[in-house]
């Protein structure tokens, strides 16, 4: 039975748009996603009516599907993202394009790209248990779609954090800890970054008098600018200078093995939060994000028929 809300669409599925999107990126230049959308729409021969189709949420259908293409290609490391909103086909992507001159069918695309989205499968690269899209229960399909949307939001959130002013980032991490429940009902926390901050960027008071405090160091680094042991040593020294025993070092990048090993053995045991964990906490506690849309899944009320 067809849903009464279902409407026909002229826009191809996202796997059918793989080839047009890749074709406009073969030059290897950095392209903004809007330019990719416009050029790929022309390459795909989309009609004016197809390009004007809107989703219930208000966006254009063809742009959303092309964004899915870019998200899949990015997850599979076939395109690079040199700057926010920009994409570039890399060597692996060019080789992949030659191997798939006619693109992929819907089934082939789902089978190929699914491992790059599933945390369980990505931890086991040799796994062959990935279910086919056609074999998924409808609720599993919904769950899979939500997972993909959430992963994309996490990527966008981290990208935006890396582009913010340091003061904004310091305030943001304080807000994350307060939303997690630190600082009590009165939300006793504040940013203290700036000159003369003593090597810390924020503080959370765990009690009304501030006798029990958590100090924060917040570093807004690029993806490949990892935090090393020296930075953690400096933070531990700052904690010692404050007479503090609790601290958290939060960054938008990652920590080296030496930094992690050092943090695990020093008496203050600072908690290290990298970019991936930070955005996971922001999503969980709804900091910097909002619910875009909700759906009701209906089932028969068994009590009604008793």
Describe the structure.
This protein is of the alpha/beta class and 306 residues long. It contains twelve helices and eight strands. It has helices at 18-23, 33-43, 48-51, 61-75, 91-99, 106-113, 119-122, 138-162, 166-179, 229-242, 257-265, 275-284; strands at 31-32, 79-80, 86-89, 189-191, 202-205, 213-219, 247-251, 271-273. The strands form two sheets. A five-stranded mixed β-sheet has the order 4-5-6-7-8, sandwiched between helices. The chain has a three-stranded antiparallel β-sheet with strand order 1-3-2. Helix 2 packs across helix 4, helix 8 crosses helix 12 and helix 10 (229-242) packs parallel to helix 11 (257-265). Mean pLDDT is 85; it is low at 1-7 and 120-135.
Question: What is the strand and helix layout of this fold?
Answer:
Elements: H1 18-23, E1 31-32, H2 33-43, H3 48-51, H4 61-75, E2 79-80, E3 86-89, H5 91-99, H6 106-113, H7 119-122, H8 138-162, H9 166-179, E4 189-191, E5 202-205, E6 213-219, H10 229-242, E7 247-251, H11 257-265, E8 271-273, H12 275-284
Helix pairs in contact: 2-4, 8-12, 10-11
């Amino acid at each position: 039975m067809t849903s009464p809300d279902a409407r026909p669409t002229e826009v191809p599925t996202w796997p059918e748009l793989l080839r047009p999107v890749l074709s406009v990126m073969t030059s290897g230049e950095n392209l903004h996603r809007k330019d990719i959308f416009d050029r790929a729409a022309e390459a795909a021969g989309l009609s004016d009516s197809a390009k004007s189709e809107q989703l219930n949420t208000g966006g254009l259908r063809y742009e959303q599907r092309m964004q899915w293409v870019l998200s899949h290609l990015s997850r599979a490391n076939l395109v690079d993202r040199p700057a926010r909103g920009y994409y570039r086909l890399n060597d692996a992507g060019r080789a992949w394009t030659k191997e798939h001159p006619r693109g992929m069918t819907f089934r082939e695309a789902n089978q190929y790209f699914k491992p790059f989205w599933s945390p369980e499968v990505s931890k086991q690269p040799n796994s062959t248990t990935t279910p086919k899209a056609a074999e998924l229960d409808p609720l599993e399909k919904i769950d899979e779609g939500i997972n993909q949307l959430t992963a994309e939001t996490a990527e966008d959130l981290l990208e935006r954090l890396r582009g913010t002013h340091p003061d904004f980032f310091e305030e943001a991490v304080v807000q994350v800890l307060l939303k997690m429940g630190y600082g009590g009902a009165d939300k006793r926390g504040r940013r203290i970054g700036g000159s003369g901050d003593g090597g810390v960027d924020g503080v959370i008071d765990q009690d009304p008098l501030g006798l029990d405090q958590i100090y924060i160091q917040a570093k807004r680094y690029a993806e490949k600018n990892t935090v090393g042991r020296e930075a953690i040593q400096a933070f531990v020294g700052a904690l010692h200078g404050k007479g503090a025993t609790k601290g958290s070092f939060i960054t938008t990048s990652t920590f080296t093995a030496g930094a992690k090993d050092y943090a695990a053995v020093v008496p203050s045991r600072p908690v290290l939060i990298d970019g991936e964990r930070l955005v996971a906490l922001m999503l969980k506690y709804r900091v910097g994000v909002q619910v875009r849309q909700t759906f009701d899944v209906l089932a028969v009320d068994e009590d009604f028929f008793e």
